[in-house]
Known about the structure:
By secondary structure, the chain is an alpha/beta fold. About 30% of the residues lie in helices and about 25% in strands.
Amino acid sequence: xxxxxxxxxxxxxxxxxxxxxxxxxxxxxxxxxxxxxxxxxxxxxxxxxxxxxxxxxxxxxxxxxxxxxxxxxxxxxxxxxxxxxxxxxxxxxxxxxxxxxxxxxxxxxxxxxxxxxxxxxxxxxxxxxxxxxxxxxxxxxxxxxxxxxxxxxxxxxxxxxxxxxxxxxxxxxxxxxxxxxxxxxxxxxxxxxxxxxxxxxxxxxxxxxxxxxxxxxxxxxxxxxxxxxxxxxxxxxxxxxxxxxxxxxxxxxxxxxxxxxxxxxxxxxxxxxxxxxxxxxxxxxxxxxxxxxxxxxxxxxxxxxxxxxxxxxxxxxxxxxxx
Length: 323
Ligand SMILES: Nc1ncnc2c1ncn2[C@@H]1O[C@H](COP(=O)(O)OP(=O)(O)OP(=O)(O)O)[C@@H](O)[C@H]1O
Ligand SMILES: [Mg+2]
């Protein structure tokens, strides 16, 4: 069997907080704090957690859009952790990102054709104009837009259509791996399903691998083969999608899941309301960072940090009491 497409080992991203007249580092935002994760070819891994827990930072660090503080990233077996921008450029063909807000990630002064064509130019692909146009039009049809849209500007489209343009732009260079950073959260609910379906069709047709970031556990359930739940910079649970939804092993995942309305009364779980807000990643709580909000917390939880360990085959949780 082929090795994993992506292997992240103990990855951290700490942002320095500068203060005082000498702009010294007075603290660290531990946005990503020791994440290990393996993603296989053709797989979708969902990444969920509350706002500020480090999902986007993790996604961007994996793609080297920001430089990780420590740890390593292996893509197709190559350790790209220390690669600079120039060395990453050819790799970018393989690794793309789709953003939450298509309006702000598309330059309003460029036509759809230029926006998508830019990706070819950067990568030195399809230098011939006619060839480029044919490819752009093919991409537009693939994402459900019309070839004549090539000469229009982003503001002439609806939110859902703009996200389709964003997707076409990512696909232009034939990537194998795409980080989807909340690609549907800014869209009307009625449009969200269409974009999810498009992403799933593209995955099937083009053999794509996704890291799919979302708040919405429901969206991730249908998309994902496996799901990673993040809390304050750490993965606290990682399991097959079915396993995680049927039997969440971490109290945090249980709380998140209990907040998802279930139309089936037999499957409805008692709502677990978490105490307080997510603590700051600047001074995360000692031991298990979830302990101040955890309904199961014991004295030990404030002292000992639980490792992410296998509690059932293929099901990992970072809780002293899981399994
Ligand atoms: N460039 C930066 N400089 C300093 N702190 C940052 C920077 N980028 C992110 N952070 C901080 O890192 C933490 C994680 O942010 P991140 O955007 O990764 O979270 P997220 O899970 O994607 O949240 P959301 O669901 O709101 O998108 C937050 O506390 C955020 O304020
Ligand atoms: Mg984010």
